[in-house]
Amino acid sequence: KEHPISLLFQQESLRIWYERYERERKGHLDFRQTFLEQATEKLPEAIVMDLNHALEKDDNSMILIRAYPGCCKINVIAALLEPEKNGVHTQSFALTTCYQVIQGQLSQSGVTFCNFLLRSIEKVLELPDEHFKLSADQVANTLSEALQALANAKKRILVGIENLHQGQIPYRNEPISALEVYRMLASGPITL
């Protein structure tokens, strides 16, 4: 006899929700449109020059944009996504993408953030989807393997991250936070 819980996903709306949740948990998140819609103004030329100077350094794996609340720092990430429109030099990167940590949402998850990075690496290396399989207890090893493959291919990725401070706390008792994943990227072929 079937347990009633097994019938839960027979309802179409729950099945669709669960499939979307599972896909996003595996790192298939796209924040591009969100960033572009939230951008309110073009970057001042002085900021574009500073940003380009930082982006042109091959050994620069982290660029910190420090701004006060309400100062539209999201405009910087949006500018990275439309470099030709904004005069931003991202040509040395094989992929430019973005990630937004939202407290209490799946994007706060360190495992999801790592999966997002793995999917980005797979895209650049033209590997099949989910080539790099991730388990919560092997985050460091799997990410290290993927970063090494990216470095061996002499490719780089640029990731703009918004609200990283909201990733300090592990999501739903996961063994790793988004901030800890970020720290694993301190040097290597991904610039944040």
Fill in the keyword field for this structure:
192 residues, mainly alpha, 3 strands, 7% strand, globular
Secondary structure topology:
Layout lengths: L11 H14 L6 H7 L6 H11 L18 H8 L1 H4 L8 E6 L9 H16 L13 H14 L4 E6 L15 H6 L6 E2 L1
Parallel strand pairs: 1-2, 2-3
Helix pairs in contact: 2-4, 6-7
User: Averaging pLDDT over every residue, what do you get?
Assistant: 91
Helical percentage: 40-55%
Order of helices and strands: HHHHHEHHEHE
Question: Number of helical segments?
Answer: 8
**Structural class determined from secondary elements:** mainly alpha
What is the CA-CA span between the terminal residues?
52 Å
Sequence of strands across the biggest β-sheet: 1-2-3
**Counted beta strands:** 3
Rg is 18 Å
- Describe the biggest sheet? 3 strands, parallel
Unreliable segments (pLDDT under 50, ≥5 consecutive)? Answer: none
Proportion in β-strands: 5-15%
Give a concise summary.
With 192 residues, this protein is mainly alpha-helical.
Describe this structure in words.
42% of the residues lie in helices and 7% in strands. Strand 2, helix 8 and strand 3 form a beta-alpha-beta unit. The chain is mostly helical and 192 residues long. The radius of gyration is 18 Å and the shape is globular. It contains eight helices and three strands. Helix 6 runs parallel beside helix 7. A three-stranded parallel sheet has the order 1-2-3, sandwiched between helices.
